[in-house]
Amino acid sequence: MSLLDIFMIAIRVAFSAFVPLCFIAVCVWMERRGAGFFQDRSGPNRAAIFGFRAAGLVQNAADGIKLFFKEDLISDHIKHKFFFVLAPIIVFFCAVMSFAVVPFADTLVLGGNSYVMQGIPMDVGILWFLAIAGFSVYGIILAGWSSTNKYGILGGLRSAAQVISYEIPMGLSLVSLLIVYGTVNLSEMAQFQGQLLFGFIPMWGAVLQPLGLIIFVIAAFAECNRTPFDLAEGESEIVAGFHVEYSAMKFAVFFMGEYVAMFASSAIIITLFFGGYQIPFLNTQALIHLAKPVAFLLMIGLPVVMYYFAGWIRRSNVSHYERENDPRVFEANVYIKCFWGLIAIIELLLLAILLMQSGGAATHIFVALLQICTFLVKVTMMIFVYIWVRWTLPRFRYDQLQKLGWQMLLPLALLNIFITSAVVVALG
Amino acid sequence: MADKIKLFVNGEEVEVEAGKNLIDAVGAVGIEIPHLCYHPALGADGNCRMCLVGIEDGRPPLVPACKTPAQEGMKVLLDAEHIKKIQHDVMEFELINHPIDCPVCDQAGECKLQDYYMSCDQKPSRMTVPQVTKNKKMDFGGGVIHDQERCVVCGRCVRFLRQITKTGELGIINRTDDARVNIFPGRPIDNRYGINVVDLCPVGAMTSSDFRFKQRVWFLKKASGVCHGCSKGCSITIDHNKEKNKDDIIYRFRPRFNGQVNGYFICDEGRLSYKSENENRLTAAFIGKVEREISDVLTAAKKELEMSKKAVFLISPDASLEQMVAVKALAAKLGATLSGYSDGYIKKGDGDDYLIQDDKAANRQGLLLLGIDTTKESFEKAVSEADLFVNFASDLSRSYEQDALTKLLTGKKTIVCATHESAFNGQATITIPVRSYSEYSGSVINCDNILQRFEKAVTKNNELLDICEVAAEFGCPLQTPAEAYAELQQVIGMLKEYQPATIPAEGLNLNDSEAANVTA
Amino acid sequence: MGAKVKTIERRGSTLTERIYLIEIFKGMARTLRHLVRNLRDNKKLLVRHYPEVQPEIPARWRGRHRLTKHDDGTVKCVACFMCQTNCPAECISITAKERLDDKAEKMPASFNINLLECIYCGYCVEACPLDAIRMDTGIFSVTDNNRQSFIIGLEELLTTPGAYSEEDYKKGGA
Fold this sequence. Notes:
The complex is a heterotrimer. Chain A is mostly helical. Chain A has helices at residues 3-38, 57-69, 81-99, 126-146, 150-181, 186-192, 205-208, 210-223, 235-238, 248-273, 284-289, 291-316, 327-355, 361-390, 398-427, and strands spanning 105-110, 113-117, 196-197, 201-202. Chain A has one domain (3-278, 395-427). In chain A, the strands form 2 sheets. A two-stranded antiparallel ribbon of chain A has the order 1-2. Chain A has a two-stranded antiparallel sheet with strand order 3-4. In chain A, strand 1 and strand 2 form a beta hairpin. The longest helix of chain A is centred in the N-terminal third of the chain and has 36 residues, at 3-38. Chain A starts with a helix and ends with a helix. Chain B folds into 3 domains: 4-94, Roll (Ubiquitin-like (UB roll)); 102-208, Alpha-Beta Plaits; 285-519, Rossmann fold, CATH 3.40.50.740. In chain B, 26% of the residues lie in helices and 20% in strands. In chain B, the strands form 6 sheets. In chain B, strands 15-14-20-19-18-16-17 form a 7-stranded mixed beta sheet, with helices on both faces. Chain B has a 5-stranded mixed beta sheet with strand order 2-1-5-3-4, covered by helices on one side. Chain B has a 3-stranded antiparallel beta sheet with strand order 6-7-10. The relative contact order of chain B is 0.09. Chain C is an alpha+beta fold. Chain C folds into 2 domains: 10-47, no CATH class; 66-171, Alpha-Beta Plaits (2-Layer Sandwich), CATH 3.30.70.3270. Chain C is elongated and about 80 Å long. The chains are: A mainly alpha, B alpha+beta, C alpha+beta. Chains in contact: A-C, B-C. Chains A and C meet through helix 1 of A and helix 2 of C.
């Protein structure tokens, strides 16, 4: 094993372990500011370090520090303290683990060796995700039960029943997808989606399996305990459900677990239905051939985008009331300068790509980076959909939730399997 | 019992007692005839005209109920239109010059005029001329403050001072809307029953300078008690209230009607004796002069009791029968001498021929009934022989000078259960705070051998122990109030027919059957 | 009954509505429009930038209490306890004393309102026979560091001025 091998293993494991964690901050920030903007209010934007608000990101740091330093309280009435502490760890751990099998770039070829860009390169692929994601509900049930609290146990029970109801349509919608792809390996699925249908449509899962997509997305929402399926929390009727007795870091771990799960399930949805890391119309081979033109286009495109972005920052980052020497104007200028600096560095790197020999290691790395960026952009957009749905739809009533799961999604998923099988068999 | 007669009120037949006027007779069966000037203790005056009732087929057809004796077959009209009209007109007439300052009036909430306005009038005033203004605040002396504007000139106060106390300090001067109640120049109300006029006054014209502005009456909780000011044991209503974030406090005593004991009135001294229930109370337990937890103190006291060879118990003559029985049982069990010595409670020559008694102890008859020795000689003899002296709430400072007391008790351990702070407490080995009579329920026997039951009125934030409970802690065989009462039933035969809750409000007259017992 | 009855058409029975997803997408489009509008110009956010921009409090707003005075500056309150009696939160505690300046018989010796217990229902204002207590100070934010300082006394109640002219206050229906 060469040094490069070890380095690449470290890179891919670190990526699949830390990117979800880093995205917690992004998710929380998107959730809160997004919620604000959806509802015509501004969301948390006051916390600042030396006057720099970073569009509200500082608030996350403040809340994190607060939760970290709060008293770690375990009430006396809680008998099973071990399980009580274990529960949030299970939830968080499962969420992180479920992301491990998702490929975030195509296999990288360096010096004749191939490197899989996946936390845990495993052939079980999607089955791993199903298993781990299903396991995370144990954390919630355990939390509800060990809290020795009516609301907690109700939340836990709701969650258990909900997961059973929605794992079935989820699994069945996957079956039809597997029929199409002919594999359970997520890397192969992603590669499959790099093809073109009829020569001009990206052969994404969403195109091949629109019904499967809808069923899977709904079930994924339910698995993540996100609105409109967050009955396990149900603050209007069961206070906070399973985490009613949790405070400080234990609560924070639940909270982070929820966002990591959201990230992981977004990544899975992307990989299964939206081409994973694939850039539409440009599969890996094409990208390697067209590395220089793409780099050149980016060199032109990025400053243009940045120009408008800077204008937007300048317009938005001002005080909305009469204020002398508005410090937010200064703040905006600093941000804009930082972004231009970043753009300058990227431009230099792109220039280096242009000057280097095509087809070499640099090109491969450039393509991999491009795919990682594509992947993250897609995931972010999917997370945005999660947030968008949350701030649009009200919560289901519990009987409606069960009715939807068993009477709508399950028959539809079965129907989908029949149709897909028929089509696949007919097309040979 | 008196003879019964039958008459008709609003066409319905009712059976009432004979020989009474209509207000009392019909009132006894729960039909109220509005009246302002009439009071059962003061007799009919007939000046307010509020009690006018119709007599069907009668001559005259309209009579004042206070002056009309109930007669067989009378057909009394109360709810006829013309009677209502009369009541309404009388009310309107009364209210011509009445200042409608109910918000600041202390009587509001227990005011006859207010009640009758709500039940009989409920119309705005038609007067267009300014009201006659009079003196709003006159100090009549004796703790009575008078507001001439509110006065409806019913004359109850005047009649009380003439008929009951026979002092006649008040009179009504002038006529028509100038008529007003006043004292004679330089002669304020000066008798020991004067504040009763405040209770008698149907409106807020007479207010007690003591209670004035202290509380609105609707905040007060009422409990029936027995005055412990003297051996008469007048029935009283204890008006107390626990304000938010404060302690339960008694605001006033009012007389409670008891035909056997005090009638409608109480003396001023008894009325103001509520203050001693609020002030100067002992609330903390001590060992020596060090304040300790009550449980520690009780343990220490029990140890002292075990160690002593010969103990003397002194029980207060104010204690309830239940407490006496409990302490007596405790003394019998421990082999201690029990004394009820309390000569200091008797103030010779202080009593009068009406309510006030010489003996200021509420339950001396109880001591005698239970056969507890009260002589000075035997008490002092017992103390001199004993090594432990336990005082159950008896105020020895009334009987002894401080020096004499110190001399009497030198070299002896003392356990004091006390309701109030006193110099004697400081000398005691152990001091235990106990409840005073407004804080427990029990029964006492007054000087006329009438046994009365009183209920627990006040519940302090920091609840003290009752003497019964202290005795029980010390190992008294009677552990619960029920057991103490059962023991009491053994001693007083008449009680066998009653439970604590069923003892009549006016008390039981023991003279009827227990006379022989008492003297024994 | 003078109330106007407006019959709202019941939705949700047509096929497109029963499929539900279409309606969800409609709803999501609506919220997205809000998001885009606000992102393009965040001046359109319906947000008051408190505390830099203070709200305008109308005269009918039930703010912190105050006690009114006679024209000569003496306290109007006669300690009748009507507000205390009427207070559903039992946050008012008054002690009365004799008044010696002939304005009335009684005046408050102390008048405490526990703002932590107060529910700002305005029943005290309603109950007051003399318009002596009002909630027209316009103070809507009561903050402090310890509980004791939320119990405001006679002095503070009397010195806090009303925030509105008598005319505006009366217009509020008081």
